[in-house]
Amino acid sequence: MQITSTAVSLTVDDVAASSKFLVDHFGYAERMSADGFASLGREDGGVDLIFLQRGLEVLPPHLREVRAAGTIVAFVVSDLDGEQARLRAEGVELTLPIREEPWGERLLLVTDPNGVVYELVEWATPAGS
Fold this sequence. Notes:
CATH topology: 2,3-Dihydroxybiphenyl 1,2-Dioxygenase, domain 1
Shape: globular
Pfam family, one: Glyoxalase
Order of helices and strands: EHEEEEHEEE
Domain VOC: 2-123
Number of domains: 1
Radius of gyration: 16 Å
Low-confidence stretches: none
CATH class: Alpha Beta
CATH superfamily: 2,3-Dihydroxybiphenyl 1,2-Dioxygenase, domain 1
Number of strands: 8
Structural class: alpha/beta
Number of helices: 2
Protein name: VOC family protein
């Protein structure tokens, strides 16, 4: 098997709102869109994200009313402090400001208008290493 790209599909109530959030704050570009659908990607080859409107018939019947919940989309970054400052300057409310875990993960969380959570993570040297 050869995988040529990767995408994650999330079901939301307002496709345009989640799409705009990624375009405005994370450098994504909308590659395709139609009624109830948007596919977004980045030039650097990061994972593509697809938003599908809840209730869309292309979804299997048992998933049509299920919203993206409990899923965190994580982006590894090289300057977490700078990203936090940028997001704040852009008016993005932080769900969780920068926090450092004992195993060396520094992270912050933001949430889009549909409740999709995005984690920005930077790896630090764990204490005692």
